[in-house]
Structures are given as structure tokens and as C-alpha cells.
Amino acid sequence: MQVHLLGTRGSIPSGGADYTRYGGNTxxxxxxxxxxxxxLVLDAGSGLAAAGWLIGDAPFSGSILLTHLHWDHVLGLPxxxxxxxxxxxxxxxxxxQDEDVDEVLGRxxxxxxxxxxxxxxxxxxxxxxxAEGTHEVEGFKVTARDxxxxxxxxxxxxxxxxxxxxxxxxxxxxxxLGPGPHGNGAHHEAAMALASGVDLLIHDSQFTEDEFESRxxxxxxxxxxxxxxxxxxxxxxxxxxxxxxxxxDSDVDRIAAGISRDDVSFAVERxxxxxxxxxx
Length: 280
Ligand SMILES: [Zn+2]
Ligand SMILES: [Zn+2]
What we know:
Layout: E1 2-7, E2 28-32, E3 40-42, H1 52-55, E4 61-65, H2 71-74, E5 89-95, H3 101-108, E6 124-130, E7 133-137, E8 140-146, E9 155-160, E10 165-169, H4 189-195, E11 200-204, H5 209-214, H6 224-233, E12 238-241, H7 249-257, E13 264-266, E14 271-274
Parallel strand pairs: 3-4, 4-5, 5-6, 10-11, 11-12, 12-13
Antiparallel strand pairs: 1-2, 1-14, 2-3, 7-8, 8-9, 9-10
Helix pairs in contact: 4-6
The protein binds zinc ion (ZN) (2 copies).
């Protein structure tokens, strides 16, 4: 399995010279089998609009899974050029909202907020609600669980191809802070289950300790929470994701310098992680 990072930023895209190395596009991760084009996309942030480097000119055929519907996770949809063309086939899966999925998406993708509806895109697009649980999507085993965030239902995902696995929780903070700093010691049960024994954990790490003091209810966490979660759940590798939009490359470097672990790194846009085969 290969995991491609198309957008690593949180909340709003960041532009300019201070954001070139870790990347300025918002959350989007694509997954492919070895040697095949990506068929599964996790979230549709602005990174999806720049997917050409990965997908090339061919029309996209596959599924897009949304963790939740915040702007930074959907704004790439109408700019997904490889999906918006004749011959494409896109299955868009949205956490069940207890109301019609097209109506919910239509609030954002309709005038006067935006001129284009999802149904206006070329190719064959379908939209579906996704329930919590385990599903088969594009031949991958996908487990979706509700995880605490803020302002709308949010899923975390665990994706497996039978040989390797990745857990993806770009927006998450535990609701109950435990005895350790920033919730360490109180890892959420669903987050633990999704991350248990995975080869790769991709996780929210938006805040520094100082920022968290005044933003504890914003639905995001400090990087030590996913590191503690990875240790508790037995994740082999952790990528810290959803960088704060004002976190410059130098800021990330400075934080990274304080984490001297080979199995933890900060997400870099336009990189690919290959997960090897192992017996399990
Ligand atoms: Zn987000
Ligand atoms: Zn969010």
C-alpha cells in the first residue's frame, strides 16, 4: 500500500514562502496499491485540486471518503480536475448526517456561497452516506468510527489492504483530559481501536502546548497526544498532520527538533509513504 500526502495543512490553506516545505494545502491523502493509480482518497481539502502530480492526466476512478464536512476538508471537490472530466467515476462517501447527503453538501456548493454544485461536475459522480462500521471500499477494508472533534459529526478511518494498514484522524482531540498533559492517559476508545497495531498513524497535531491552553475546546490536539496514542495502541509509525495555518516551516522544524524519535515525523505535502508487506 502506498499513502500519498496531497494536503497536510489544517483550517485554511497557507500561501507564501514560509510554507513551501511542509506544504500549504489542506487535508487530502490518497491511497493506492503498489504499482496502481490511487483509488481511495481521504478528505477533499485544497490538496485535491493539486492532485495532478500524483494522478496525471487520466480521469480518476475511485472513492473519496470524507472524515467530516468542515471547509478545509471539502473545498477541493469542485477543483478536482481529474474527477471533473468525462470518463471519471467518483464515489463520494460522507459520514451519515441524519439528513439527505446532497442537501447537506448543497448548502456549501450552491449560490450564493459557491456557483458550482457537485452534480454539475463532469463524469459519473455519486454521493452516499457512510455509517459507522467496517465497509469494503475499492477493495480496501475501511473501518469508520466516530471520534470527538467539534462542530459536526467526525469519523476517523482505518484502512487495510490485508497486508498493511493506516489510521487517519486529521481532526481529533479527546473530550476528557486525563492525568497526563493534553489528554495523554485518556486516549479515546475509538481512536485507540482505529490505531491499534497499525503500520502508520496520521493524526491531528495542530497546536503547541502554549496554544492549547486557550484553545482546549477547538477540537484539535497537541502533538504529544498522537505520540502517546501511537505508543499505547502499538502503531509502528506516526505522521503529525493538520498543521496550524500559521505554523511556518521554521516553526515545524523547531518543534520537530524537540521530538527525537525515528518513528515520528511531521507531514510533508507531496510525499509518499510505502507500507511494506508483513505477516499479521
Ligand atoms: Zn480540519
Ligand atoms: Zn474539522
